[in-house]
């Protein structure tokens, strides 16, 4: 609520280049949590890089704290900057569907990232992570690693379709593996909530073999609670999204954090690069591009470690 | 000179049980009994320690909030303020670690910084309210947004983390203790006892109640209304800083989601405890009971499969209203 009151829209980049240059508008949520922070980091880096590669291309990057501001941003982009293509990560699907549809109808190229629109077929290009695969990849690791009769607890995120898809994927993957889910509750993708939840689960259950924390912030909270209870050797914790501290622990062979599952914020780079290539060149770029979640293991952890990323 | 609502409540309560006094305690005992019935580990040493230690942040803040509310004020900024102070403390401690190494002076500097930053933040709220004359609700709504944005900006949208070795050195402040009682619990108890004494037995505490009860009469009684009111916000800011000192060693990190909704939890605890939201009467021990009630609800819900996790908020809301209804009934009977 408060964010709506005080946050403003930040116009980050945009210099007018030679006449006749094409302009690409990029609209993404503001950096209010770790993943979105990394999204901003990758978006800015990609825009900087592409401005050098394509001198004829202009970029307008806006970050928005809520749906209403995003709608105004899009209107401003059309009215004042005359964008030729739009790369948008909708803050929410429903409220943004109408405005984006109008932009698409006016002949502007539209690339939608991660959160799909409520009506199909509006966008020219759809780039997204795969939430079902995110849960499934973790679930498959559990099913392979754990013995029959193993007991696990599951931390969910903020109640949302993203969270539901992930949990559905996880549950489908461990189905039939004889793994018992002792408890499942919402840690809200928050370290403190996860810490408290894990403390209480540790008091409640004498045996826990593994924790699926579904997000690295929650994994940090869970690991602190396990350490406090002195039960570090008993269970492993699998988070998700590839926070660099976690990737670092995997790289150094930490037994408590054996693997991680990606949900790359760098997908915004994929979207901007593909849009730019489609505008400038003749390579066909329309369709759906789904980025599967990968399993980060000690062997490939180096590839997923970004030193200067905030996440 | 000072108003004496406390006595008014106590005197007739000798014979008849006064629900306004025992209401929160009854609710607390009921929760403990429910917890015992639902899970055998509820009364275990580890669980009790967990619940009390995690209550300490909100608890320390809520003691300060009791003074603010008693004096007829309100502070919505404490959660964001805690996050901002925590972020600042972590940043400075990381910078100092580069110069001084992993040493105790860095921790002392961090602690001092947190206390000063909290105090200054409280002073800013207080000055805007008392000297500039803006409504407390508006001022603290504004600073709440400002601090929340500042921590997001400081952390670059991500998470600020204390260096690993420094975290290990600082860690015992949350996880350690003496005689099996952890430091945050001891800190909470100390703050609560001092708060109770100040509220009941000092001129400052009485002045707070007088101002909250009737500001004009308080002024005619030659109470320095503005100064006392300012002092309540400074005190609350200082206690937010102190809560952060206990909070940072727990996970060694701060982010945009740190301290989210702490202000509402603190206010709820104060009201459950019997302090009047419109001011004029405050009860520190009631606030402590209120804080414990709030954390016990969460703890019990986590220890059982009693209700769907989707309904946790509903249970919490119902218990808050119920605890307050118990008291209001008592007040109406009198």
From TrEMBL, chain A:
GO terms for cellular component: cell envelope. It comes from the Bacteria. Its main location: other. Coiled coil: none annotated. The lineage of its organism: Bacteria, Pseudomonadati, Pseudomonadota, Alphaproteobacteria, Rhodobacterales. This is Monosaccharide ABC transporter substrate-binding protein, CUT2 family (TC 3.A.1.2.-). GO terms for molecular function: carbohydrate binding. InterPro entries: Peripla_BP_I, SBP_2_dom.
Automatic annotation (TrEMBL), chain B:
The keyword Cell membrane applies. Keywords: Cell membrane, Membrane, Transmembrane, Transmembrane helix. It is found in: Cell membrane. Coiled coil: none annotated. Its main location: membrane. PANTHER family: ABC TRANSPORTER PERMEASE PROTEIN YPHD-RELATED-RELATED, RIBOSE IMPORT PERMEASE PROTEIN RBSC. This is Monosaccharide ABC transporter membrane protein, CUT2 family (TC 3.A.1.2.-). It comes from Celeribacter baekdonensis.
């Amino acid at each position: 609520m408060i964010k709506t009151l005080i946050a403003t829209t930040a116009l980050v980049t945009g210099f007018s280049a030679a006449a006749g240059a094409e302009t690409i508008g990029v609209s993404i949520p503001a950096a209010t949590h770790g993943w979105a922070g990394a999204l901003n980091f990758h978006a800015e880096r990609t825009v900087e890089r592409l401005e050098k590669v394509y001198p004829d291309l202009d970029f307008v990057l806006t970050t928005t704290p809520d749906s209403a501001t995003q709608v105004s941003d899009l209107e401003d982009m059309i009215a004042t900057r005359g964008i030729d293509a739009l790369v948008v990560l909708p803050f929410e699907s429903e409220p943004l569907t109408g405005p984006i549809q109008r932009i698409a109808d006016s002949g502007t190229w539209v690339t939608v990232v991660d959160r799909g629109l409520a009506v199909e077929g509006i966008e020219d290009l759809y780039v997204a992570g795969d939430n079902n695969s995110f849960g499934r990849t973790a679930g498959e690791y559990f099913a392979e690693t754990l013995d029959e009769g193993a007991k696990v607890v599951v931390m969910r995120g903020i109640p949302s379709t993203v969270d539901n898809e992930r949990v559905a994927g996880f549950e489908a993957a461990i189905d039939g593996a004889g793994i018992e889910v002792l408890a499942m509750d919402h840690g809200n993708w928050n370290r403190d909530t996860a810490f408290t939840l894990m403390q209480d689960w540790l008091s409640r259950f004498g045996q826990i073999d593994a924790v699926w924390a579904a997000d690295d912030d929650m994994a940090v909270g869970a690991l602190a609670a396990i350490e406090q209870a002195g039960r570090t050797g008993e269970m492993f914790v699998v988070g998700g999204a590839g926070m660099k501290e976690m990737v670092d622990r995997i790289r150094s062979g930490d037994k408590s954090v054996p693997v991680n599952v990606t949900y790359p914020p760098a997908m915004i780079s994929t979207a901007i690069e593909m849009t730019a290539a489609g505008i400038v060149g003749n390579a066909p770029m329309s369709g759906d591009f789904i980025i599967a979640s990968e399993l980060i293991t000690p062997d490939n952890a180096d590839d997923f470690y970004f030193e200067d990323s905030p996440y | 000179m000072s108003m004496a609502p406390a006595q008014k409540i106590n005197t007739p309560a000798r014979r008849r049980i006064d629900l306004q006094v025992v209401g929160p305690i009854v609710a607390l005992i009921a929760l403990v009994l429910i917890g015992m019935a639902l899970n055998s580990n509820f009364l275990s040493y580890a669980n009790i320690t967990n619940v009390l230690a995690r209550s300490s942040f909100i608890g320390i803040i809520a003691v300060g909030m009791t003074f603010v509310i008693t004096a007829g004020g309100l502070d919505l900024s404490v959660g964001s303020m805690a996050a901002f102070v925590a972020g600042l403390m972590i940043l400075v401690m990381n910078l100092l670690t580069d110069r001084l190494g992993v040493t105790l002076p860095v921790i002392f500097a961090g602690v001092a910084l947190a206390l000063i930053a909290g105090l200054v933040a409280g002073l800013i709220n207080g000055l805007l309210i008392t000297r500039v004359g803006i409504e407390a609700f508006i001022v603290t709504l504004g600073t709440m947004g400002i601090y929340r944005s500042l921590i997001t900006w400081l952390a670059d949208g991500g998470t600020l983390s204390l260096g690993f070795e420094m975290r290990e050195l600082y860690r015992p402040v949350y996880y350690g203790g003496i005689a099996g009682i952890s430091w945050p619990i001891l800190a909470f108890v100390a703050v609560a006892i001092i708060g109770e004494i100040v509220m009941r037995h000092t001129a400052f505490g009485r002045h707070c109640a007088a101002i909250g009860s009737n500001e004009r009469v308080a002024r005619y009684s030659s109470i320095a209304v503005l100064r006392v009111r300012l002092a309540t916000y400074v005190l609350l800011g200082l206690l937010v800083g102190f809560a952060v000192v206990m909070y940072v060693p727990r996970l060694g990190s701060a982010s945009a989601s740190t301290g989210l909704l702490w202000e509402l939890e603190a206010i709820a605890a104060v009201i459950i405890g019997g302090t009047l939201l419109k001011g004029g009467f405050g009860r520190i021990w009631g606030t402590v009971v209120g804080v414990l009630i709030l954390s016990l609800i969460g703890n019990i819900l986590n220890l059982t499969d009693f209700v769907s996790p989707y309904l946790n908020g509903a249970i919490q809301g119902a218990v808050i209203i119920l605890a307050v209804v118990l008291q209001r009934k008592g007040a109406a009977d009198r």
